[in-house]
Amino acid sequence: MNKHKSFWYYLRRGVYLSVLAVLVLQTWALYQVWHYAQPQTLQQADAAVVLGAAAWGKNPSPVFKERINYGLKLYRDGMVDKLIFTGGTPVEGYPTEAAVAARYAGKQGIKQADMILESQSRDTYENLYNTRELLVGSEMKRLIVISDPHHLARAHFIADDLGMDVQTAPTPTSRYNDSAQSKQLRLWLEESFLLVLYQAGRLFPQARDHIRT
C-alpha cells in the first residue's frame, strides 16, 4: 500500500516539476523575444545580413521591404560595407528572395559589388547557416542581422549556436509595430513558442529538422 502511494506521489511530483519547468522556459522565451525586439546600440560591422521574407513576384513584400530598407540605411550610414541578402524561393521558376532584395537595392543605387546573395535557404536557420558557409575564408566576421523585432531572439540564438559574431537590429518600421495589439501579442507568443521548440531541438538534435519545418 505504501509503495502504491509512493508511486503516485512521485508521479504527481514529476508532473508538477515538468509543468513548472515548461512554464519557466516559456517565461524565459517571452522575455527573450521582448528583449531582442528593443532597439540596440550598434557597433560598426563588416556586413548586414537581411533575413529573407516573402517576395511577391519580382517585388519584396511590405515586411521584406522594411528589412531591406533598414539594411540600406545601415549601409549608407557607414555602419556596414556589404549587404548580404538571404532567402530562396518556395516555388520553382520564381525569383529567390535574395534576388528580389538585390534587385530592389540596385534600384536604390547600391553597387552590385557590395551585395552578396544567399539564395538557397528555406528558413531562418538556413539563412544564417548558409551565410556562415558563404563567408568561410573571407575577412567578413562581424555581422549585423536584420529582421522584424519579434523575430530576432530566435535569430540571435541560432547565430550563437553557429558560432557567428552578430549583433541584432530590429527594423524601426515594421508591420509588427503598426498592427493591433492583439496581433502583436499573437506574434510575440508564436515566436516565444518557436524559441522554446528551438531550444528543445538543441537537446534532441535528431528532431531539429522536423522542429524547424
Automatic annotation (TrEMBL):
Coiled coil: none annotated. It comes from the Bacteria. Residues 46-189 form the DUF218 domain. It holds the Pfam family DUF218. This is YdcF family protein. It comes from Vitreoscilla stercoraria.
